[in-house]
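sorry for the late reply, my laptop died twice this morning and i had to redo everyting from scratch. anyway the thing you sent over, i finally got around to it. pasting the sequence first so we're on the same page, its 277 residues, then the predicted structure underneath. double check i copied it right bc i was rushing
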Amino acid sequence: MRIRRVLSTAVLLAGVSAAPALLGAAASPAVADASPSASPSGDATAPTEAGTSFRTATEIEQGVQATAGGSAGDYLYWQFPADAGQRPTVKATVKLPEASKRASAETWQIDVYDGLRRRQACQYGAQTRTAATDASTVELSCTLRTVRAWSETWANDPLPGTYYIRLTATGLGAADLGLPMSTELRVDSKDIGGSAAVDGSLAKPLVPGIATTSEKSDDSSDSKTAVLSSLRPDGSDWWSDRWVWTAIGGVLAALAGIGGYALTRGSGRPSRIPPGA
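ok and here's the structure:
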């Protein structure tokens, strides 16, 4: 009996000592997922202008800093692609005119819309800020919720596809309208991993057909294709790190059961009691 108890305890201790190694092995992909997923492309051309409406929004890639000039009171638009499992963060820096030329404080705001032009809430970040009359710049940021591979039709969850950015001044004095300004904008994402995985996938990314670009075909005729239509959702992939954490949970549950049995089953029949009693 004592030998079996010692063996059970040894198995339990071995399992508990192996658990941190398993947790470390599973945590390493999660740490890797926490790093930015988009990096500047070597051949990417950074846009130097912005659109004035949803239809003319300038396309930008994640990880590339875009710049644009305009006038105070203009609406500036950009668009970028986002895939399932990403958590995009939009950052914008508005360079204001000289303080001597401005008559009052200015309030600037950045909004993000999905491919269906539904305004997406910012999970955190300074989406709206007011610049004092002596301020030279104002910095805005908006971190969206994690893009889901699938969602209910009634929900307003962010889905894979095109996202629109709109930058404008919401509080501006009449004397400051038309003053020159410039802005720098950048979009980066973090891959959240299996913690955001869902049991479903979007059939097609949310890419509005009205945002089109002309392409020359072999017969020299112009054909219209949807902007960012090459984006494909990632939700159809069956693998995610949720499988790793599920396996670790099963192993720990089994070890807990073995340990509980070893501690509570007792030492068996006392030696002073005969077998036939």
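The chain has two helices and 13 strands.
thats about all i looked at so far, will dig more tmrw
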